[in-house]
Amino acid sequence: MSKEAKVLLAPLDPVHDIGLKIIKRSLDEAGYLTILLPPDYSSEEILKKALEEKVSAILVSRTLGYGVAELLARFVDMAEAVGIRENVKLAIGGMSIRPELAQELGYDAGFGPGTKPEEVIAFLENRKYEPEIRGAGKIKRDITKGFDYAYGNKNIGKMLDHIVTSIVGWGQNKTTPGIKRAEVRKRLLELPQGKDRTQLLLEYLRWCDDKVKDFYLEKTVLPKTRLLSSEELRKLERYVEETNKRMTLQVIQHTREKPVVFIQYGTGCPFMDIAHIKAGEAWGADGVVHFDPSWGARTEGFLEGYITHEEDGSIITPENLMSIKGSLSPHTIWQVRAHRGLNTPETVLLAGAMGADMTKINIAYGSLGGGTDPARLTVDAMQAIRYAAEYRLSFDVVTNEELCGVPAYKAFAGMLITAHLGLRLGGRPILQPLFCYSPEVMVSGDMDDNYVDFNAAKIMALRNIIRAPIWPGAPIGFLTQTEDRVQSSLSTALHGALAASLGVEAISIASSDEAYSGGPIAVPSRIDTLKALQEAFRFFGMSSIAPTEKAGVWAERLEKGIEEVLETVAERGDFVAALYEGLLGSVAEGAYPGRSGRGTVMML
Amino acid sequence: MGEWFESVLDAVDIETFFACKDEKEGRVLAMQLMKGFGLKDADIVFIEHEGPGARVRARGYIHRAGDRYGWLEGGTDDE
């Protein structure tokens, strides 16, 4: 059908013609000659007009209801009776219209809700509609790009410089089993294919716990784990290949480019993780975060092989990471966490070697809320940051100690110390304040009225201190969400909208069953929150959420609190001692210096 | 269990509203419903009762982490 041909748009409906108006606009823009009839024309009147105007196509719109199917079918019969059915294309559109129904009623095409004007144009031009693959142009964004990490609060910058100098001095002649293992692992990774790795492996095992040694030497499988078979691996490969072929990627963001949206995975099984990741990617997740099991953080040494685990947290092995990496869409940002535990340097090393984009490191959280000895984690984290710099992994500095009860200003002081240490060692840190209903605000009542002000205050305070990327998490809205699917999806969406309004770089989101503790997260629940967030971004667009004046007051209070804590830590002159002594979160506040790995720091 | 369950990636959620007198009754009904559908590894994710009845989200896991997944078995290696 040529564009000079006329298209008649007829709302065979007493009221509704919005859909046709939208289609008309697009057809006009595409160069078609269109005639839009007003609503409430009868079938006879529409056909009379079609004959008079010698149209080439009639697009009828109608919402289905009682007796409407008969009306629509009669329209086709009448078109036939007046002799235009052969030469005029007939299509029907509206709510509840499906292509099969249209065909049944005698139309050439049927367009339901969500129809894109391009689909109608393709129909008019006898072309197959090829939907634009949204996300085909999706790019993997570096969320640290463009930040110079300049301090707006010079005093804080100066104190951090002082504290970090003392940390680097303290750590320079120390090592740990974690660092030793990472060094051996690096050599193992660099070993040419086919070379004997026995000696290196024995050296690696020297620094491992007995259960890890037993795994390698006695082939003892850890409880609730099993090795995945080669047949399962082949099937996984095929599953990923087939799924990738069918993938079109949704984009969650609307008119704002930020924030980048991360989901977290760690079902226990790399295969199930991959299935969750593919669903997340398809529904618009920009990045994925790997969660390992909690026992992994308390065990000296990593296992090897393709291993599945029946409980939460997916085991870090080179092979598991490799299979996950192999499944990712090219645009997906991949983060492997290393913020706590005894394998921190090796985690970052493996993440880098396996092609991850980001990692997660925080000494204060890992040693006050994550269970690792402060001295051990300080030494390990320094090496981990060096690996992150070497492999060009940016890393976020999470402040989950807030969930233990540590006030935000103390958690932020710890975060800023690790971030500054990261900068000193050549890394690219990202600040990760919590967007949550933490114990601190439950007690203070600062969120009694709304969830906006305190979260906004955090961002305002951090922005005032340093020009650094900010990635609230993790996940946003934590402790506001319940097992109620609607409530939790909405809460995530609103927190996401606030994050977008504040212009932060990224967010991590929960699933709509995150608060349910009786079993693993299910894929539909992941999609719930991605959809809810997409809708929130569509709703708010470039408009903003306005915090009340309290946000400004609390931002000042936070900044002052951070400054005071840093002053105390700087005066103490010993960061590790400050952690043990509770300057960055005390036992009374719910922070307990971890014991895992205590006494394992060695002098070089 | 029907073979269609094998294509379920992880779990089946059933959301409904039971006309019942209290949450306890709603829970019993939900679990009976799940059993009736052949969902053995079942639990209630969420339940909220008000006067007219209970809003329920019940879940039956088909595949948990570490299982052999039916959706991965979609054909043999010879295909």
Describe what this molecule looks like in 3D.
The complex is a heterodimer of chains A (604) and B (79). Chain A has 604 residues and is an alpha/beta fold. Chain A has a domain at 6-124: Rossmann fold, CATH 3.40.50. Helix content of chain A is 47%, strand content 12%. The radius of gyration of chain A is 30 Å and the shape is elongated. Chain B is of the alpha+beta class and 79 residues long. Chain B has one domain (3-69): D-lysine 5,6-aminomutase beta subunit KamE, N-terminal domain (Defensin A-like), CATH 3.30.30.60. Chain B is elongated and about 45 Å long. The chains are: A alpha/beta (604), B alpha+beta (79).
The largest interface is: A-B, 34 and 25 residues
Low-pLDDT residue intervals, each spanning 5 or more residues of chain A: none
Mean pLDDT of chain B, to the nearest integer, reads 90
Quote the CATH topology of chain B.
Defensin A-like
Distance between the termini of chain B: 26 Å
Class by alpha and beta content of chain A: alpha/beta
Strand order of the largest sheet of chain A: 14-13-12-11-9-8-17
- What class do helices, strands and sheet pairing of chain B give? alpha+beta
Architecture of chain B, CATH level 2? 2-Layer Sandwich
Number of strands of chain B: 3
The chain-level mean pLDDT of chain A equals 93
Give the % helix of chain A: 40-55%
Helix count from the secondary structure assignment of chain B: 1
In terms of DSSP E residues, the strand content of chain A is: 5-15%
Largest sheet of chain B: 3 strands, antiparallel
Percentage of β-strand residues of chain B: 25-35%
CATH class of one domain in chain A: Alpha Beta
